[in-house]
Design brief:
single chain, 173 residues, alpha/beta
Length: 173
């Protein structure tokens, strides 16, 4: 929304996963807080893979989404493919964001903006909890929350809007 997008699509995995449920709730709450509200027609859930991302993104692009928030980097790669198959450009026409910051995402075309998970800190916490269990010190039933980081690359850009007859920038529609 800070980049001017108002038709933001949500591409994520099946709702049976708690992470998908939380991401969806966070997506909806954030759009409401920022004053945009959300359109249920811009939410598509599909398998966590390239094909699932492509299928879901294709539907959202047809519904007018100008930005896509994807539940994984693989889904985001499928979303980029869908945008291109509609004759549009990433990020010129549609911005795409992934999740996970998989090692090769900085080498894709365009390099993918993504949400990086603190994998090392998550792994350390899991190993410590496991070792405590093995040593007979059961961990309290607790939930660990980790702070993700947005890694901005070239798959997102500000949404251009025409004002008072201004000429469109190169590549803008």
């Amino acid at each position: 929304m800070e980049l001017g997008h108002r038709r933001i699509g949500f591409v994520n995995g099946p709702l049976r996963y708690s992470t998908v449920q939380r991401r969806l709730a966070g997506f909806q709450a954030t759009l409401r807080e920022m004053g945009g509200g959300y359109d249920a027609d811009l939410i598509e859930l599909s398998p966590f893979d390239v094909e699932g991302g492509q299928s879901a993104a294709s539907l959202l692009v047809e519904r007018g989404a100008t930005a896509l928030v994807c539940g994984s980097d693989l889904m985001a790669l499928g979303a980029v493919r869908a945008v291109r198959r509609h004759g549009l450009k990433v990020p010129g026409d549609v911005s795409v964001v992934g999740a996970d910051d998989s090692p090769l995402m900085s080498f894709t075309d365009p390099p993918l903006t993504t949400v990086r998970q603190p994998v090392q800190a998550m792994g350390v916490a899991a190993v410590r909890a496991l070792l405590d269990e093995i040593k007979g010190r059961p961990a309290k039933a607790a939930e660990y929350l980790f702070q993700p980081e947005l890694v901005v690359r070239s798959s997102t850009r500000a949404r251009w809007t025409r004002h008072d007859g201004d000429a469109a920038p190169p590549g803008a529609r």
